[in-house]
Amino acid sequence: MEHSYDFDLAVIGSGPGGQKAAIMAAKLGYKVCVIDSKSMVGGVCVNTGTIPSKTLREAVLYLTGMQQRDLYGASYRVKEEITISDLLARLQHVVGREVEVVRAQLLRNHIELLPGFASFIDPHTLSVDVEGTSIHRTLTADKIIIATGTVPARPANVDFDGIRVLDSDQILSLERVPDSMVVVGAGVIGVEYASMFAALGTRVTLVEKRPQMLDFCDPEIIESLKFHLRDHSMSFRFGETVASVESGPRGTITTLASGKRVAAEVVMHSAGRQGNTGGLNLDLGGLAADNRGRLAVDEHYRTTVEHIYAVGDVIGFPALAATSMDQGRLAASHAFGEPANELRGLQPIGIYTIPEISYCGRSEAELTSDSIPFEVGISRYRELARGQITGDSYGMLKLIVHSDTREILGVHVFGTNATELVHIGQAIMGCGGTVDYLVDTVFNYPTLSEAYKVAGLDVANKLRAVARFRTQMATAEPSAL
């Protein structure tokens, strides 16, 4: 049956996934609209998540002078008394510019941006409550992509007041840098903010119900991060759950299930996020979310309803802006029959702690579990001229290489520019390159990229030693064995 729809594609949400889905469909020549609140153009990524937190991190690094302390002494600071105003000045500028960039990109691609809140009437029909008015607009679309992101999970036993007890979206509303803080949840968001406030001089206590933090990362890298966080007076409470949080004019008391009590000026609760699907009337669209508000999708990001797709944080792990962008592109391509490839196994993970972490590919534990032979090469920033120049004596790069084929299986980086450096390894792995490329190539000097050369030589020397020993054993006289 022939249908006539108002739009070929309606995208709910203007975050990274929604933007790229809309632009991809527009590039293919389809009529597209994006529905989102005026105050959230760019999504959580631009307004309360990725961009604000990473801008805050850069402000912290600069104002505290942390990256120069190896050169100028432990007391070195660019500004003695750092205020919230100092931190937010740059943040507000960057967020404003990013919102304009998103608007301009949508406009340039003739995508209609509808300010409001969408909900399903039926699988092809959406109701849009036009923001700031009492108008309810109804529109139809051939394809629909849900990219509504997430909101902080708020457990019932915690009373969030937005002043003393905050979620991760509210943390930027603090009026001053606190002297002490409890961070509940050692996931990516919790650890990132915990490290930033620790760098500012806040005494941070990190509470996590699991026995370890960031357990999807390389254990050696995480141990290095914990060492540096402890050096900034951070305390860890692993294997602990929060029983209650009490707040008053002077501060808070966090009571743990084990009976411990932790006093602090403020508490940031960052133990998980919830899919932002509560107002969508999913049942009218033929959909259902799980108990955390997330939607299940197939390998093409299609939901259980054939013409409805979902991308970004609303579908769960890895819930990163970078992966969300690619998911949006792929979903729109599949929806309209456009060939598109995905390098799912080579998606880099970047964690903007202080110091930062990034990795791509597989870990030692995964390879050992799958009985894949490998060798490891290590390069430490303190052995690089650039590491000395930048004052980073703790950074490291770990290279994991297949013992037989010499293919690069994983790259794990800790320290300055980790999230930039990881892409060199990612590119080589994507092209099927081996460690021999790193051994044979020439890197600019002095650069942190030289870490690849050093780690590559480390691996090559280890593999050569094994090969030499095996050759000697094979050619030795039986009587000599």
TrEMBL record:
EC number: 1.6.1.1
Residues in Pyridine nucleotide-disulphide oxidoreductase dimerisation domain copies: 348-453
Subcellular location: Cytoplasm
SUPFAM superfamilies the UniProt entry points to: FAD/NAD(P)-binding domain (SSF51905), FAD/NAD-linked reductases, dimerisation (C-terminal) domain (SSF55424)
InterPro entries recorded: Class-I_Pyr_Nuc-Dis_Oxidored, FAD/NAD-bd_sf, FAD/NAD-binding_dom, FAD/NAD-linked_Rdtase_dimer_sf, Pyr_nuc-diS_OxRdtase, Pyr_nucl-diS_OxRdtase_dimer
Assigned keywords, A-Z: Cytoplasm, FAD, Flavoprotein, NAD, NADP, Oxidoreductase
Swiss-Prot/TrEMBL cofactor(s): FAD
Enzyme superclass (EC): oxidoreductase
Domain FAD/NAD(P)-binding as annotated: residue spans: 7-328
NCBIfam families xref list: PRK05249.1
Role of this protein: Conversion of NADPH, generated by peripheral catabolic pathways, to NADH, which can enter the respiratory chain for energy generation.
Record family assignment: Belongs to the class-I pyridine nucleotide-disulfide oxidoreductase family.
Protein name stated in the entry: NAD(P)(+) transhydrogenase (Si-specific)
Organism: Microlunatus ginsengisoli
Gene designation per UniProt: sthA
